[in-house]
Amino acid sequence: MHISKEEARVHNLINRFAKNDHLLGVDVLSKDDLRDKLFFREEDFRIAINGNILKNRNGGFLTTDHLIEEVNRLLNQTIEDEQELASLKKEYLSKFQELSESGSYRPTEVLINLASEIHWHILPEYEEYMIVNSELYPNKDTREYYNHFHTLEDLYKELTGYGKKVESKKGDINLNKQIDINIYSRRWGHNDTYSIERTLEGWTVTFHQEKAGNKEGEALIETLRHDFINYPHELGTFMWHLWNKADSNEMTVNELQKDLEQIADWINACEKTTPEGIEV
């Protein structure tokens, strides 16, 4: 079963509502409610609406019947027994360490059973790419999901305090921030300043005029073409990879600027070494 990144994200957001089910009783949820209490990222508002778990209402958000049904389903399966959880956790940590040290990395029935039981005690949240790669939802295909060393390892990390950082806003800290880079023009014989912003949709570039484009750097490439500046053939691929790197990590604006400056240096090297006197 194919699972998109957005579908995996909806799965995780439903998990968060299940752990904060009192929010289902709030008439209208504000953006700040969702950001502060459920650690919504900027793109999550669109994803939640497209995934039919929230809908817009007067500048705020209402929970949908689908979300309420899914949360109730999860709550009906969860187990609240701290003593039992402590026992399961102790056994799981011991068994996983044995498996890891054995070098076989082949999940045992004992570990799969323990993981499945622990899952419904704590409703752990995993990285979206793990759900996408497994093609299984942890909350729906629980036993099958844990029938893999890496998913068992993720649960081990969760139990030992090294699991997914749910509260992390990741790339939101570098979103919609203006970054200036210098681009050399042979035509004019000097550098020009291009302003670039990473947006939810891709990259926006401003040089004389503002252009919005996709994650492959369409706006940057169009601006370079307009100014007759030569650029590397793989520029679009690198802009796409940089967008994803900046989105999936807690990359600061300064760190993003350094990577964009590397790309600017690459463009400039291409422009400066362009053969002269043979242009059509």
Summarize the structure.
This protein is an alpha+beta fold. It is about 50% helix and about 10% strand.
Q: Topology of this structure?
A:
Layout: H1 5-19, H2 31-38, H3 44-50, E1 54-57, E2 60-63, H4 65-77, H5 82-102, H6 109-122, H7 128-134, H8 142-145, H9 149-159, E3 179-185, E4 190-198, E5 203-207, E6 209-213, H10 218-226, H11 235-248, H12 253-272
Antiparallel strand pairs: 1-2, 3-4, 4-5, 5-6
Describe this entry's structure for a reader.
There is one protein chain. The protein has twelve helices and six strands. It is α+β, with helices and mostly antiparallel strands. The protein has three domains: 5-75, Orthogonal Bundle (Arc Repressor Mutant, subunit A), CATH 1.10.10; 78-159, no CATH class; 170-272, Integron cassette protein superfamily (Integron cassette protein  fold, 2-Layer Sandwich). The strands form two sheets. Strands 3-4-5-6 form a four-stranded antiparallel beta sheet, covered by helices on one side. The longest helix has 21 residues, at 82-102. 26% of the residues are buried.
Question: What are the main properties of this structure?
Answer:
3 domains; 51% helix; 12 helices; 12% strand; 280 residues; four-stranded antiparallel sheet; 6 strands
